[in-house]
Every structure is written in C-alpha cells, then in structure tokens.
Design goal:
This protein is an alpha+beta fold. The protein folds into two domains: about 30 residues; about 200 residues, no CATH class. The protein contains nine helices and nine strands. A hairpin with a 5-residue loop joins strand 7 and strand 8. Helix 2 crosses helix 9.
C-alpha cells in the first residue's frame, strides 16, 4: 500500500498536495532561522553595550570624569610604576618609574602661548602633571591631565579641530615638561623637548598629553611628534632613541588608567 502526499487547500479552498520541502529549501530555512536568532541576540547585546547610565560618553560618565582630579588618589591617576608591555621600539617592553608629581594647579604659565590659545575654548579647571623616567634612567617624560570646563560638544569641537588641522603635529604647540628640582628631570626644559603627543578626549572633559626628552639635559633641534617618531622609517634623533615610544606609550597607559577610573566612578551609586 502506498500513501499519497498530504493535501492542503488552494485559494479557492480546493484540496491540493502539499509540496515536500527539499534539502536546499530546508537548508535555506535553517539559515534564515540562524540569522534571525543572530539578529535578535545582536540587538540584545547592542542594548547592553549602549544602554545604561554608566556608559562611556553618557552625561553621568562625562560629569564623573570631570571630578576625578579631586576624588581619585594621585597613585591611581599617575601610578608610581607603569608597565609598558610592547610599548618600546620593535615591540620591546618598557617600565616607567614616577620621579615627581607637580602640585595640582591652574594653567597659568603651564603652556606655551600658542598651545594655551589653542586650548582656550575648553577652559582650564585643573592641571595635573607627573614626570617619569625609564628603567635605564636615560629618558624623562612628563604626562599631563588637563581637566577642562567644557561640555561634551565643546570637547568634540576641539578634538575635531586638532584632527583636521593636525595641531598635535605642530612643534610650536608642544606641551611644556615638569622639571622637578633634585630629580633626573631637573634640566628638562623647553629646549630639551624631543617628542610629544596630545589627545583630546570627547567622552570626558580632559586633554591627555605627554612630552619626552633625554635625562642628561641635552637640547633638541628637531623635535618630532610621537605619532611620526614611532614609524619604522623615522630617522630623527628622537625617533632613533625611542623617545616617540616613550611619550606615546606612557600617555596611552595613563589615558587607559584614567578611563578605568572613570568607569569605576560612574558605576558607584550616587
């Protein structure tokens, strides 16, 4: 005995055979099911990533970031020792030791006139600075956190200007070092600056910068921005010595720690 195909009904309510689904159609249906589930789970995951009050870029996070200069211990903003795995030339590891911390201050006399003018639109709430040396005590690097008075649109406008006009590449807009007396950085002045980096954050009212030089106080005639000095074909004295890596590597890690502190502060119950 054989069985015919099961019947369904057409548009006129007449019986018609139900077509058996072949392997290609079944596979296509399975793919659609998987894609559908993927889109649903992706939407859920996306809501976790962009929702909530403690996210980077949210108003609460922006406000929390602006208060860290007086609510977080200096050792969390500028750790006594900073590990820079892969931060040196050729991916070599680096270790930096803090040798001085400047008293928190305003921005008067903290920047050269042109850089002060470029930063003026975002204002100055507080400036924190620390100077480090590498494991061989050959180089010194000052890292700064400028806490501004700007809102999020103001920080975005400044970041866009720095990017479009490449202000972070101009040697007349180099940050000044913090030359602490009685330390390896005692002779680290304006003429000793070799490489630098400036990062304008948009999810926090903060500008992160670093400037590096030799610990022996030698003057530098051809300073180079860190972004260029770390390139493999860079030939300046600063690049060959790895001073671009010093500035960029240390600034990146201080900025990373700062973001971690912002997340911790924004997650605390108010």
């Amino acid at each position: 005995m054989s069985f015919g195909e099961p019947e369904g009904y057409d548009g006129d309510a007449r019986p018609r055979p139900l077509v058996r689904r072949g392997a290609p159609q079944a596979a296509a249906a399975a793919v659609c099911l998987v894609l559908g589930l993927g889109l649903i789970s992706g939407a859920v995951t996306g809501s976790w990533l962009v929702g909530g009050s403690g996210e980077e870029g949210s108003p609460s996070t922006f406000a929390a970031a602006g208060s860290l200069w007086h609510s977080v211990p200096v050792d969390q903003l500028f750790p006594p020792t900073v590990q820079g795995r892969g931060a040196g030339p050729g991916g070599a590891d680096r270790t930096w030791t803090r040798i001085a911390v400047a008293p928190d201050s305003g921005c008067k006399n903290a920047f050269d006139p042109l850089l002060r003018k470029a930063l003026a639109p975002v204002g100055c709430e507080r400036l924190l600075r620390a100077t480090y040396t590498d494991a061989t005590e050959s180089y010194v690097t000052t890292v700064g956190l400028l806490f501004t008075t700007a809102d999020a649109p103001g920080m975005t406008a400044l970041a866009n200007r720095f990017r479009k006009e490449r202000l972070d590449r101009r040697s007349d807009l180099m940050p000044l070092p913090y030359a602490a007396k009685g330390t390896l950085a005692a002779d680290f002045g304006a003429r000793q600056r070799a490489s630098w980096t400036v990062s304008v954050l948009t999810e926090a009212p903060v500008v992160v910068y670093a400037v590096s030089g030799w610990a022996d106080g030698r003057t530098v005639d051809d300073p180079q921005p860190a972004g260029d000095a770390v390139e493999a074909d860079a030939t300046t004295a600063a690049a060959q010595a790895g001073l671009g890596n010093e500035a960029k590597g240390l600034a990146d890690r201080v900025e990373r720690d700062f973001r971690r502190n912002v997340r911790s502060a924004s997650e605390q119950p108010s």
